[in-house]
Amino acid sequence: MGRKQRCKRNRKKCKSLKVHPKYIGQRFRLFSKFEQGISLSDPESWYSVLPEKIASHVASRCRCDIIVDPFAGAGGSCIQLATTCTYVIAIENVYTRLLDAKHNAEIYDVANKIDFILGDAFQIFPSFIGKVDVMFIAPPWGGPNYENGDFFNFGRFQYGLSEIVDTFLQVTDNLAISLPRSSSPRQIASTIPEGRIFEVEYNYLNDKCKTITVYLGSLVKPLVSSSVVQQTDSMVDTQRENREQYPSQD
Ligand SMILES: C[S@@+](CC[C@H](N)C(=O)[O-])C[C@H]1O[C@@H](n2cnc3c(N)ncnc32)[C@H](O)[C@@H]1O
């Protein structure tokens, strides 16, 4: 099929799926190999996939042996994680999205590094406790409308951020959590258990902040220092500063 024909087919698909045309315009930002047959079978997949450059950056920070992507969607994140990690476990509770993720991973030639599991991440997570190095967590935060307020309100969705952090910290200390760009730094800070160091990263594409990633455990970049002892001190200071800057709302 020629390029023109493919574009026409994509535009038609977008219309039939009721996806805003801006997403089709951004399709190569989502997947650089979009024209090779990437499949996004429903509107939510279009607006929830992590843009490839951000996914690739986060994957470079999550480099490890075994990683779990408990909210895999149509595969934007797990495909990039498979390029930096030895083995990826991708969980998704919508069958068609899991099929898309597998199909899309085949296009990127990484499907053989990913185990695709259909199920509820909140039910399955106990089987991974102590057995994986890192979790990359990108839960559904409610689609494009979450951006309407000044700050994203975690409380509006099925799982609060606290619940997500508490649940997956049982599996591993090393979490990367993808949040909407409008998330309040104060709220993020108030959900991280006392005593844990964390890092908040703003992910920009073309001068526009697209998402926020929160890192915990060994994924937090150490501060530059001249000795290990000083490094530990300064990391504790960072935590204290974070808490002072964004005190808990309780
Ligand atoms: C934000 S999307 C993930 C996008 C993905 N990271 C990507 O880059 O393509 C969140 C996904 O989590 C799935 N999901 C929601 N609740 C879930 C659950 N309890 N267990 C597993 N998957 C779930 C949704 O169906 C949705 O596809």
UniProtKB/TrEMBL annotation:
Protein name: Trimethylguanosine synthase
Higher taxonomy: Eukaryota, Rhodophyta, Bangiophyceae, Galdieriales, Galdieriaceae
Pfam hit, one: Methyltransf_15
Annotated stretches, region: Disordered: 231-250
One Gene Ontology CC term in the entry: nucleus
Reaction(s) this enzyme catalyzes, per UniProt: a 5'-end (N(7)-methyl 5'-triphosphoguanosine)-ribonucleoside in snoRNA + S-adenosyl-L-methionine = a 5'-end (N(2),N(7)-dimethyl 5'-triphosphoguanosine)-ribonucleoside in snoRNA + S-adenosyl-L-homocysteine + H(+); a 5'-end (N(7)-methyl 5'-triphosphoguanosine)-ribonucleoside in snRNA + S-adenosyl-L-methionine = a 5'-end (N(2),N(7)-dimethyl 5'-triphosphoguanosine)-ribonucleoside in snRNA + S-adenosyl-L-homocysteine + H(+); a 5'-end (N(2),N(7)-dimethyl 5'-triphosphoguanosine)-ribonucleoside in snRNA + S-adenosyl-L-methionine = a 5'-end (N(2),N(2),N(7)-trimethyl 5'-triphosphoguanosine)-ribonucleoside in snRNA + S-adenosyl-L-homocysteine + H(+); a 5'-end (N(2),N(7)-dimethyl 5'-triphosphoguanosine)-ribonucleoside in snoRNA + S-adenosyl-L-methionine = a 5'-end (N(2),N(2),N(7)-trimethyl 5'-triphosphoguanosine)-ribonucleoside in snoRNA + S-adenosyl-L-homocysteine + H(+)
Family membership: Belongs to the methyltransferase superfamily. Trimethylguanosine synthase family.
Species annotation: Galdieria partita
Domain of life of the organism encoding this protein: Eukaryota
A GO term for molecular function: RNA cap trimethylguanosine synthase activity
